[in-house]
Specification:
353 residues; Rossmann fold; 14 helices; 4-stranded parallel beta sheet; binds 5-phosphoarabinonic acid; alpha/beta; 5-stranded parallel beta sheet; 14% strand
């Protein structure tokens, strides 16, 4: 496919995922405003925060978790299950996040949090989650609907960041959000459809991933969530298999698995995500790992974060991965927007008593 033909790209993208991606900076601006202006009453003095959600609605929880790890005095945990961990109680703040508002695991975890007397907030476009929150008097943040959950990362994540700030668990993230918005506006000029492949990193990555299996390596505490995000976006947008792992853990197991099956390993396209805040020993690990396994796999490409703040750096990498996954979809002749297997699974589950 000619990734530089706007006409071909638009034809292959009937759901308009490229357009939604282009608007990510504006989405982030609006999402931050929604979070900072939301009217709610919550106590203070939490011992921990739990974000409960799945898929595209959970990744914002991981962004919050990694952000808070170096900024907040209390831990943030992400729950992708029907039940919450045993520690959840009256001194826990639980964010129940579901774009549709109808994801059964999230609704079940919502009920669990209520039963344990946790302080709660729901973030959703509507659905049963909004209904339950209204019924129960739980603070509710309504975000705009009409796009795919995974394309709504700003709406799903930034209101939780704003609320964390407002209940005193985090310092002012406003300047980081402003920097992120400006950086994404700059980056879309480089990554968007009108930017030619010979200077468009996302198109080049899609070309590398085509007919290969992307394996994304991030690092604990910095790019780990981004690595998971790239994998998820390739799965859901491109309908293609992809994997992720994190340094330093992968140096203690996965690295050993690069011997067999030797011929198949050549089909792996490895990405090393890097960030200036990576631990110095992790930086060394990236280099050493490249030297040790570089000949065994298809190729290794390093993609470095841009920007100053932690938030901007994370989103700079997310934007590259989001665009690459959409271009890869279009190269495969796949519409990035529908996720028919997820829909079919949810339907079958709802019929399954
Ligand atoms: O991106 C997607 O469509 C999925 O990963 C959904 O986010 C996931 O199935 C959960 O649905 P929801 O976000 O509506 O809670």
């Amino acid at each position: 496919m000619n990734l530089d033909s706007i006409e071909e790209l638009n034809q292959a993208d009937p759901g308009g995922m490229l357009r939604v991606l282009w608007n990510l900076p504006e989405q982030c601006e609006e999402a931050w405003r929604i979070g900072t202006e939301a009217v709610f009453e919550l106590p203070t003095g939490f011992d921990q925060v739990v974000v409960t959600g799945l898929g595209g609605s959970a990744i914002g929880g991981d962004l919050l978790r990694v952000y808070a790890t170096s900024e907040a005095a209390v831990p943030v945990l992400v729950n992708r299950d029907y039940r919450l961990p045993a520690f959840v109680g009256p001194r826990t703040l639980v964010f129940a996040v579901s774009y549709s508002g109808n994801t059964e695991e999230t609704l079940s975890a919502y009920d669990d949090a209520r039963a344990r007397g946790a302080s709660m907030m729901a973030v959703t476009t509507g659905g049963q989650l909004a209904e339950r929150a209204r019924r129960d008097g739980v603070p509710l943040v309504i975000i705009p609907g009409g796009i795919s959950p995974r394309a709504a990362s700003g709406y799903l994540f930034l209101p939780t960041l704003a609320v964390m700030q407002r209940v005193g668990l985090l310092g002012d993230a406003g300047p980081s959000v402003a920097e992120t918005v400006n950086l994404l506006k700059e980056m879309r000029e480089e990554l968007g459809p009108q930017s030619p492949e010979n200077r468009n990193l996302a198109k080049q990555l899609a070309r590398r991933f085509f007919q290969r299996i992307p394996v994304i390596y991030g690092s604990s505490g910095t790019t780990e969530t981004v690595a998971m995000r790239w994998k998820g976006q390739i799965n859901e947008n491109s309908k293609a298999m992809a994997y992720f792992n994190v340094f330093p853990e992968l140096n203690h197991n996965e690295i050993v698995g690069t011997e067999k099956p030797a011929a198949k390993l050549k089909d792996l396209e490895l990405i090393f995500l890097s960030d200036p805040a990576d631990h110095p020993r992790v930086k060394a690990r990236l280099e050493i790992t490249r030297g040790l396994i570089g000949e065994r796999v298809g190729a290794i490409t390093e993609v470095a974060a841009r920007g100053g703040s932690k938030l901007a750096r994370a989103y700079s990498l997310i934007y590259v991965g989001d665009y690459a996954s959409v271009y890869l979809a279009l190269m495969y002749g796949i519409d990035p927007t529908p996720v028919k297997l997820i829909d079919a699974l949810k339907k079958r589950l709802s019929d399954f008593q």
